[in-house]
From TrEMBL:
Keyword DNA-binding: yes
Phylogenetic lineage: Bacteria, Bacillati, Actinomycetota, Actinomycetes, Streptosporangiales
Domain Core-binding (CB): 69-150
Region (Disordered): 1-32, 429-448
Annotated protein name in UniProt: Site-specific integrase
One Pfam family here: Phage_int_SAM_3
Residues annotated as domain Tyr recombinase: 218-419
Family label: Belongs to the 'phage' integrase family.
Family matches, as InterPro entries: CB, DNA_brk_join_enz, Integrase-like_cat_sf, Integrase_catalytic, Integrase_recombinase_N, Integrase_SAM-like_N, Phage_L5_Integrase_N, Tyrosine_recombinase_XerCD
UniProt key word DNA-binding: yes
Taxonomic source organism: Actinomadura vinacea
The entry's keywords: DNA integration, DNA recombination, DNA-binding
Length: 448
């Protein structure tokens, strides 16, 4: 803005030898700065100074020097400074930055990022075959990083991550098991076919299997790979052509995960003192996290709401009692579900021990994940028609979004409410009626 004598009171404009105009102005710290670009006319330069002055007055001004920091450096620092991130989340963010963000945008200055540039980045990821789920996760991370640059660090005036729907994952509906399938799965995870696979000098693999009665036989064909031989062995066991052994070590593990809606880290962290089989409850106090380097860390639950006491069905208590008597040490701090060597149960060890993919195929649910047991338990709870608050408490969630998804999905819960209302109406009608009344006195008839 200019004073009466024609001189500006904020900043100045000078003409460069090129004929273009440059603006200079003092920042809030008193240091003189130049605008990052020049202008074709003096009027354009003065208008830019007026806008900058207005931004400073309103507190929306950002230092153009700070906006020169590279996105890759800023995002790496952002991840490092988030002290409350869980170890696996921190590793996921670092991997997303290294794999999907930095190769495309890491060298770009924050101030140069734009929505079209973000859109081009997402298109490049899609063209490279990156899944929709990974693209959505990378976009959400980038959006969170740049929101900090806007709201807290005041480096940007607005977040360029404004691509509609880019952070939404259209994940397929996860399978929900029936109660009968949960019990069948609990039995199947302990079934092992009896046989062995040996690599021949030719590089092929030979399969030997045990038939009912204990006789070992050699399969007539050889196989190019070990997985092919394993597939045939498990198929023979499923068809009854190969003998099996039964191990009940993980039966209670499956039942408790499903019917108490526990996460992997929560159930693997349970101690003997956390189970109260008399009152039929399980107490969740912490969770194990397995880092990418294999380190097992016992930490807090996913959220404060994750620390909870969950009631369990009486029907699975005998299975838990049998498990505790057979596999759990007597001391109160002993792990309820430990690995073969006594340490925390690892996902890799679980999958190897159970041959999960074969078990899921035999169950008729080939894309079943372990987390779908929790999904099943949550769905069954929602089908009971319980309140949103009770469902959140059981699931260990401190926000309503996840619980609402289950309540909206539960047609059985809605049917239970309707049946309950019907029972109230029927009771009211029976109470107000006359036993000798055939109902004709209260019937509605057309009136001419």
């Amino acid at each position: 803005m200019a004073n009466k004598d024609g001189h500006r009171r904020f900043g100045n404009v000078r003409k460069l030898p090129s004929g273009r105009f440059q603006t200079r102005y003092p920042g809030p710290d008193g240091r003189i700065r130049s605008a990052p670009k020049t202008f074709a006319t003096k009027r354009d330069a003065e208008r830019a100074l007026t806008l900058i002055e207005g931004q400073m007055i309103s507190g929306e001004w950002t230092d153009p020097e700070r906006s020169k920091v590279k996105l890759g450096d800023y995002a790496a620092k952002w991840i490092e400074q988030r002290q409350k991130l869980r170890p696996r989340t921190r590793e996921l963010y670092a991997w997303l930055l290294r794999k999907h963000i930095a190769p495309h945008l890491g060298a770009v200055a924050l101030g140069q990022l734009s929505t079209p540039m973000i859109r081009d980045w997402l298109s490049a990821l899609a063209d490279a075959g990156v899944s929709a789920t990974s693209r959505a996760k990378a976009y959400r991370l980038l959006r969170a990083v740049l929101m900090t640059a806007v709201d807290e660090d005041k480096i940007l005036t607005r977040n360029p991550c404004r691509v509609r729907g880019a952070g939404t994952e259209d994940a397929p509906e996860r399978p929900t098991l029936t109660v009968a399938q949960v019990f069948e799965l609990a039995e199947r995870v302990g079934v092992r076919p009896v046989g062995n696979i040996r690599k021949l000098d030719s590089g092929e693999f030979r399969l030997r299997y045990q038939v009912k009665g204990g006789t070992m036989r050699r399969f007539p064909q050889t196989f190019a790979t070990r997985p092919e031989a394993e597939h045939v062995l498990w198929k023979m066991a499923e068809d009854g052509h190969a003998d099996v052994i039964q191990d009940d070590r993980l039966r209670a593990f499956i039942l408790l995960a499903a019917f108490a809606s526990l996460r992997w880290g929560e159930i693997t962290a349970l101690r003997q003192c956390d189970l109260d089989l008399t009152n039929q409850t399980v107490r969740v106090r912490g969770a194990y996290v397995e880092r990418a380097n294999g380190e097992m860390i016992l930490g807090p639950t996913k959220s404060k709401a994750g620390m909870r006491t969950v009631s369990i069905p009486a029907a699975i208590v005998p299975h838990l009692v049998a498990h505790m008597n057979k596999y759990v040490r007597p001391d109160a701090d002993a792990l309820v579900f430990a690995g073969i060597k006594g340490g925390p149960l690892r996902r890799s060890g679980f999958n190897k021990l159970t041959r999960w993919s074969y078990v899921a195929n035999a169950l008729g649910v080939p894309n079943l994940h372990f987390h779908d047991l929790r999904h099943t338990g949550n769905t069954l709870a929602a089908d009971m028609g319980v309140s949103l608050r009770n469902l959140m408490a059981r699931m260990g969630h401190d926000n309503e979004r996840a619980a609402l998804r289950y309540q909206h999905r539960s047609a059985k819960g809605d049917r239970a409410i309707a049946d309950g209302l019907d029972a109230l109406v029927q009771a009211e009608q029976n109470e107000g009626g006359d036993e000798d009344d055939d109902g004709s006195a209260g019937a509605l008839v057309p009136v001419a």
